[in-house]
Specification:
The structure holds 2 protein chains of 2 kinds. Chain A is α/β, with parallel strands linked by helices. Chain A is about 60% helix and about 10% strand. A 6-stranded mixed β-sheet of chain A has the order 6-9-10-3-11-12, with helices on both faces. A 4-stranded antiparallel β-sheet of chain A has the order 2-1-4-5, with helices on one face. Chain A has a two-stranded antiparallel ribbon with strand order 7-8. Chain B is α/β, with parallel strands linked by helices. Classes of the chains: A alpha/beta, B alpha/beta.
């Protein structure tokens, strides 16, 4: 079993892509494609790291309203070139039958024999075919380039906007929706620009060109032919389009049902076996697969009607053309060559109509994608810099909450009239039940949110009046769920700054106590982290997060239960890591373990959005309040009081 | 696979079934002979549908032959009714109309039958694979990755199905191409040969094109996945990014990934630019050749003008199979590779099976015994060795030990998820190897440490082991597991859909549903794998209260990860490196055993046994 080929290289989504042709990736390269993929990857240019400046303020171009037209006209020369090529292709590819007509009428008909005419017509045919092929070639290249350039820029633009949005956006909007904007919505546009619009223009133009040629040859027959071909074929294609749309919807739902049942049955195989559910599940599976099969049979039926059906229309039109056109020839209203050309052209009507109907759908889809992207781009961040906000000068780390009220929703306050101050270099522990407001205080210090009432200041600067990036560069947060990025351990440790030297890195590794773990890894600090570090224990990931914060070297550090998963057996290691990281900084510890809280200079008990007790460990113990209760329980049972403090973490963590 | 060839097993109380059978079971299975080629092994399945399949092939043959007739009629009509009128035009017109209608009807029938056969085939293979996988033993799941299995069951079956649909269609088209070529030859041998000159080139280009198009689309998908990874990280890691003010870094990472996407799309366009114009215009070149040579032949009186029209139509008919033959070759390769991957699963045999003559286990007392058990996962090191424990009727025994000491493994042996390498596991004196697997699992209930809930309602999840249980029974089990209270508060109560696609429950809530699920079955022997994740102390206490009563009445094995759970046990067994080192009451071990005390101190270690 095991992984096929690339390993972590193919990491990330993939998805099942219901509308795509079968055989799209699911995780590993099928062995039969490996060679081809390798060949392409060899050609891929090495990544040249980007170094784009990023500001929280969008520039003028980024403020523009997003429309399809503006996207297209971003590269006016490429666009113009594409247009010219489309016109060339549409005209040159339709000259052939007219040349055949000429050759028949002037070179082959009795009394008009001329080898020269035939050769000239054939040569001309050859030339236009070559021109058309070259035109197509350039057109595919040009529109491919236009599409990838435009989409590349759009992707960056949308992503930059996402990066500007506040934390509240990410907690309120479903992750899947944000993901869809950045992936399928942009993909829809890619398909449209690369192929859809060209096809739309090309096929539309083709129909016009053919119609004109037909009218030139014989207006009456042209009118009859167009009337016979276009309406029924459009109607049939439209019906097909709608019916297959419905069908594919059913197929997509069907396969989703099959995969859900399959994956749950496999993931829950232990439960399935423990409860002897195999037969029941097999019947359930038959039912979902059966529905999926019925959906497939339905679309199959639609296809089975449309394919032969449109062919039937074609044959009937030919029969009628033979009857009408033939009698016109017999009455000398039409030349034989023209009739042959008519037959050739009539067949050429079919493809454009079918493609136009198909592309219409793509056009609609991308319009709706544009609207969704536009809405996203017009979403304003909640936390914004005031105009010309000054950068925060290097701080000492004195933090002050002054009568702060806060609610994630204005009608439900989470913090009530919180006031306190923290001296530079002081370590404060926040303890209390989940939902009491500890994490909220931490989020306000980093200005993930602005207070509803009251002010928060650092070194006397109101947080709302300084540039947010300059504030956060001097702060560090270690969240409870340590998040690791795809990349190596080194990438993850050096995440905060670009200019971290090897010595600094090594120092951090030693001080935080990562050395032993890193030495154990196959490639040391350059070991790749797979699947967000699932191969590492939570404790190891927390140590990495601590190392990351150490390297950020912030003046103010917020540890949000950052040591909760560190192994109790390595209590000593935790102490050393904390010592290293808290040294000479202002620190706010949201404490999971009372042993950690004990280390703080001052402890604040946060309950019901208020600070109810405050003081050193000894002072609080003497007070015999809530803290003393908690501490005593903890000492007696020898168990971590974590659970009583954190009833349900899932409410607060994203 | 043997099990799947028989009809649905007679309803046995051991295999609870309450689903309605709307769709029938696959009538045949794959050929078990692994030496045969992949498509031969699928023949038994296709054979169950030979009538529609053969009919489909015959009909598509007929419809294509009818189509081939029409250009020839046009050719004759132009020459005999128009250029030199000798036959009335209406003769050809009516003939074309009749043939067209016939071709339409037969064409519809052929495609419909062919699609049906192919989708039925897919249905069978999917169900066979599913049934087979659900019967496989745990040793298989230890090796396989669920994601891989799902993708095999999806893409691989799909790619075989595509091949089974298109291969016959293309082959029929090829057959018709031969007929069309025959017609061309009958009109003019030299012109037919000249017109065909470009076809091998077309075929060759088609093959080449598929060869490069598939890999590039993979590269595009991979690069898009990289973009998605960065976006995903920016969503899930938003707090880290924002707190270090590293939005700029993320933007650059994304730009880098996006540029690779742009490159691969450009590459894709370049490849298409190389092949599409050639494929689309080669038939035109044929037409140029037909024009020159055909024209000269017309002048010399060897050919009628209508032939030019007919040749044009035939070239269109011929073009398709030549282009698609390339595709067929590629699809065949893919289908073969896919089939190999599927057979890799289908050829695995379950290693935990009923011995011939095995009887159903009926627990009367409820004693359990491990004697001299040795066990290893696959070829790995021994996880248990010399493992001997006797659990008395109604006793609750806790297994305690550090990570990797073999606690969970012992529990899995008692469920007969695995068979021991040496020694025996028995219940009421019956060796588990001698009784039916289903009866063991029916009598031994397990609550897993990481409770897995299905995307179904809470009621359905609780009734998982007894799908036809009444609502009262479900509520009773939920109440016993202390879950009733929070369930009542949920939006739709017991009908709230949970699991991956539904309402998100906390770890403690999931744990209680899992307990209710096991309690509903009311097994005489119970295994409790203590949750390692944090549960609210109050909740834990209330679960334990409920359990206390239940444990009193039945034999229970607890894998304890916390002190409070140990308190439920009558006796505790201390495990080290797969063997029992001490056994006794908690108090006596606390008093006498240093190792026990130190293990308890470290017991909340976050790392849990992974298997």
């Amino acid at each position: 079993m095991g992984w096929g080929g690339g390993g972590g290289f193919w990491g990330g989504g993939g998805g099942f892509g219901g509308t795509r042709p079968a055989g799209m990736p699911f995780g590993g390269i099928p062995s039969e494609l490996q060679e081809g993929v390798d060949a392409i990857l060899k050609e891929e240019p090495p990544s040249a790291p980007y170094d784009m400046a990023f500001t929280m303020e969008p520039d003028a171009a980024e403020r523009q309203r997003l429309t399809l037209w503006k996207l297209l006209t971003q590269h006016p020369r490429l666009l113009a070139w594409c247009t010219i090529l489309v016109i060339i292709v549409a005209t040159t590819s339709q000259v052939g039958p007219a040349l055949i007509e000429y050759a028949i009428n002037h070179g082959m008909l009795p009394g008009h024999h001329s080898v020269r005419v035939i050769i000239v017509a054939a040569a001309a045919y050859l030339v236009v075919t070559i021109i058309s092929a070259l035109g197509q070639r350039s057109q595919v290249r040009a529109s491919g380039r236009l599409a990838s350039a435009v989409m590349h820029e759009l992707r960056i633009r949308v992503f930059r906007h996402l990066q500007r949005l506040s934390l509240s956006f990410f907690t309120e909007e479903k992750a899947g929706v944000i993901m869809t904007r950045m992936t399928s919505d942009i993909e829809n546009l890619q398909q449209l620009l690369q192929d859809g619009l060209n096809q739309f223009a090309l096929q539309g133009l083709t129909m016009v060109v053919i119609t004109i040629i037909l009218f030139f040859m014989n207006p009456l027959l042209a009118a009859i032919t167009v009337a016979m071909v276009v309406p029924p074929l459009f109607a049939a294609s439209w019906w097909f389009h709608r019916a297959s749309e419905r069908g594919y919807e059913r197929v997509r739902n069907g396969i989703a049902g099959v995969l859900t049942h399959l994956s749950e049955s496999l993931q829950g195989i232990r439960v399935v076996s423990a409860h002897n559910r195999q037969i029941h599940n097999a019947i359930e599976h038959r039912n979902v697969v059966g529905e999926y099969r019925d959906a497939n049979v339905y679309t199959g039926q639609v296809n089975a009607i449309y394919g032969p059906g449109s062919q039937l229309i074609g044959f009937l039109v030919q029969a009628l053309l033979l009857a009408i056109g033939g009698s016109m020839v017999l009455h000398h209203h039409l030349s034989v060559g023209a009739l042959v050309a008519y037959f050739l052209y009539v067949n050429r009507f079919f493809q454009p109509i079918q493609l136009l109907v198909q592309q219409y759908n793509a056009l609609q889809q991308s319009q709706s994608s544009i609207v969704k992207l536009r809405t996203l781009l017009e979403t304003q961040p909640e936390v914004v810099d005031i105009p010309d906000a000054p950068a925060l000068a290097p701080i000492n780390g004195e933090i002050r909450f002054d009568h702060v009220d806060f609610g994630y929703r204005p009608d439900r306050l989470v913090l009530h009239d919180v006031s306190f101050s923290i001296a530079p270099g002081e370590t404060i522990a926040l303890v209390g039940p989940t939902g009491g407001g500890k994490s909220t205080i931490a989020k306000l210090i980093t200005r993930f949110y602005d207070p509803t009432y009251g002010t928060i200041s650092i070194d006397g600067h109101d947080l709302r009046k300084v540039e947010q990036l300059s504030l956060r560069r001097q702060l560090g947060v270690v969240p409870q769920e340590p998040f690791l990025f795809a990349g190596t351990i080194r990438d993850n440790l050096t995440f905060p700054r670009d200019d971290i030297s090897e010595d600094e890195l090594n120092l951090a590794i030693d001080r935080v106590g990562l050395r032993e773990m890193i030495d154990r890894l196959p490639d040391g600090v350059d070991t790749a982290v797979h699947e967000r570090g699932q191969s590492l224990s939570t404790g190891e990931r927390q140590l990495l997060a601590l190392g990351r914060a150490f390297l950020a070297n912030p003046r103010v550090l917020v540890l949000d239960e950052a040591t909760s998963s560190l192994d109790l057996q390595s209590e000593g290691a935790v102490e050393r890591a904390l010592d290293a990281i808290l040294e000479q900084r202002t620190a706010i510890l949201i404490a999971h373990r009372l042993s950690t809280a004990q280390r703080a200079d001052r402890i604040m008990v946060v309950q019901g959005g208020r600070i109810t007790e405050e003081g050193s460990h000894e002072a609080l113990m003497a007070e015999e309040g809530r803290y003393a209760d908690l501490f005593n329980t903890w000492q007696q049972t020898g168990e971590s009081p974590a659970s009583s403090l954190d009833a349900d973490l899932s409410n607060e963590t994203r | 696979m043997r099990a799947t060839t028989e009809q649905d097993r007679s309803p046995s109380p051991l295999f609870p079934v309450s689903a309605t059978t709307t769709y029938r079971r696959p009538k045949a299975t794959v050929d078990p002979d692994t030496s045969k080629s992949w498509w031969k092994r699928f023949i038994p399945i296709v054979a169950t549908r030979r009538v529609p399949f053969i009919a489909a092939l015959v009909f598509s043959g007929i419809s294509l032959v009818l189509q081939v007739l029409i250009p020839n009629l046009l050719n004759q009509a132009i020459d005999r009714s128009i250029v030199t009128p000798s036959v009335p035009l209406s003769h050809y017109v009516t003939e074309i109309i009749w043939i067209a209608v016939a071709a339409g009807i037969v064409g519809y029938l052929s495609r419909w039958l062919l699609f049906r056969t192919a989708y039925d085939f897919e249905y069978d293979v999917r169900n066979l694979l599913f049934e087979h996988m659900s019967l496989l033993s745990f040793s298989f799941y230890d090796r396989a990755q669920t994601g891989q299995l799902i993708s095999r069951a999806n893409s691989d079956i799909r790619s075989i199905q595509l091949y089974t649909t298109f291969a016959p269609m293309i082959l029929v088209q090829c057959a018709v191409a031969v007929v069309a070529f025959g017609f061309m030859l009958s009109i003019s041998v030299p012109l037919a040969l000249i017109a065909m000159a470009t076809m091998p080139v077309l075929f060759w280009i088609g093959v080449r094109m598929r060869k490069v198009m598939f890999p590039i689309s993979w590269v595009i998908q991979a690069r898009l996945a990289d973009v998605a990874t960065t976006v995903d990280e920016s969503i899930n890691g938003v707090r880290v990014i924002k707190s270090f003010a590293r939005e700029g870094r993320q933007v650059n990472t994304l730009a880098d990934a996006s540029e690779k996407v742009a490159w691969s799309y450009t590459k894709d366009a370049d490849i298409r630019a190389r092949y599409t114009p050639a494929i689309q215009n080669l038939p035109q070149i044929s037409l140029v050749l037909v024009l020159i040579f055909g024209g000269i032949m017309v002048i010399n009186g060897h050919l009628g003008i209508g032939a030019i029209l007919a040749f044009n139509a035939y070239l269109v008919i011929l073009q398709a199979p030549f282009m698609m033959l390339g595709m067929l070759v590629m699809m065949g390769q893919r289908a073969a590779a896919s089939a190999d991957r599927i057979f890799e699963i289908l050829d695995v045999e379950a290693d935990i099976t009923d011995r011939p003559g095995a009887v159903d286990l009926v627990v009367t007392e409820g004693t359990a015994a491990f004697s001299g058990v040795r066990f290893a996962y696959g070829d790995g090191p021994d996880v248990l060795h010399d493992f001997t424990i006797n659990i008395a009727e109604g006793e609750t025994l806790a297994l305690v030990g550090r990570t990797g000491s073999g606690k969970s493994t012992a529990a899995k042996l008692l469920m007969r998820f695995y068979d021991p390498t040496e020694g025996s596991v028995s219940i009421d004196g019956h060796h588990l190897r001698d009784v039916t697997v289903a009866s063991v699992r029916n009598q031994v209930g397990i609550v897993l440490d990481e409770p897995f809930l299905f995307s179904a309602t809470i009621a359905e999840n609780i009734a998982y082991g007894q799908p036809d249980a009444s609502r009262e029974a479900v509520i009773a089990a939920a109440t016993a597991a202390n879950a009733a209270e929070f369930i009542d508060k949920l939006p739709q109560g017991y009908d709230t859909v949970v699991g991956e696609r539904g309402y998100t429950l906390s770890g403690g809530q999931r744990q209680r549903i899992a307990i209710a699920r096991t309690l509903l079955v009311n097994p005489p022997i119970l295994i409790l794998d203590d949750a390692t994740s944090a549960i609210d102390v109050q909740v834990e206490q209330s679960i334990h209260e409920a359990l206390h009563e239940l444990l009193d009445k039945r034999t229970t094995l607890i894998i304890a990860h916390r002190l409070s759970t140990i308190a439920l046990a009558d006796r505790v067994a201390l495990l080290r490196d797969g063997t029992v080192v001490a056994i006794g009451t908690h108090e006596s071990l606390m008093a006498s055993n240093d190792e026990y005390r130190s293990v308890l101190a470290a017991i909340e270690s976050p790392v849990e046994e992974s298997i």
